[in-house]
Structure formats: structure tokens, C-alpha cells
Design goal:
- There is one protein chain.
- The protein is mostly helical.
- The protein is 72% helix and 0% strand.
- It has helices at 8-12, 25-60, 64-67, 69-80, 88-110.
- The longest helix has 36 residues, at 25-60.
- The radius of gyration is 23 Å and the shape is flat.
């Protein structure tokens, strides 16, 4: 029996070997894929906590303030941290690093 290489599930589980060299494009792609997967795990975990909080609100009614506090605090913590390392956080981090390097260079020039 021959294997069907067009099987989407089998191709989704395929791990690309990489050399660990930062200049290797496969290393970069693998790292990006792992970061995206970790981000999606955080998003799904926050969604699950939000659904638990919603169910608690509906179940407890007027007593939700006292009885759903743990869910609310867990949800605030889950959405408070960034889901991915990219986007605005990466840009801001780069700007802060550049500003620190420029300040260090300016202080060297002043002495």
C-alpha cells in the first residue's frame, strides 16, 4: 500500500531539520513557527479562562463578585502578558535598545 504524500495531517506534523545556524533560513522559519505555536497556546488558554469566567458569571448571578474572583484574576493575568514576541513589542524593544546604545555613545563622546 503506497503512502499518500498529499495527506495534510502528515505534512502538518513534519519537522524541518535545521542546523542551528542563525543565518540558515530553515532555522529562522522553525523558530518563528515555534513562537507562533506558543502564542496560539497562550491565546487558547486565555479564551478557555474567559469562557470559565463567563460561565461563572451566569451561574452565580448577583454573587459573581465574591464567587468568580479567581477566574477574573486569572483572566486579567492571561491577557496582560503579550501573546507573541513580535509586532509592537519587538519594535519598542528595538527602539529602547537603540536609544540606550545612542546614550552610551553620547556619554563616551562627552568624556
Amino acid at each position: 500500500m503506497s503512502k499518500n504524500y498529499a495527506d495534510k495531517q502528515a505534512s502538518a506534523n513534519f519537522k524541518v531539520p535545521n542546523s542551528g545556524d542563525p543565518s540558515d533560513p530553515m532555522t529562522t522559519l522553525s523558530k518563528r513557527e515555534e513562537e507562533n505555536r506558543a502564542g496560539w497556546v497562550k491565546i487558547m488558554k486565555a479564551r478557555d479562562i474567559r469562557n470559565n469566567l463567563r460561565d461563572c458569571f451566569r451561574r452565580e448571578g448577583v454573587n459573581h463578585v465574591e464567587n468568580c474572583r479567581e477566574f477574573a484574576l486569572a483572566y486579567i493575568q492571561a491577557i496582560g502578558e503579550p501573546f507573541t514576541a513580535g509586532g509592537v513589542q519587538r519594535i519598542r524593544g528595538g527602539m529602547e535598545e537603540r536609544a540606550a546604545a545612542e546614550a552610551a555613545a553620547a556619554s563616551k563622546d562627552a568624556h
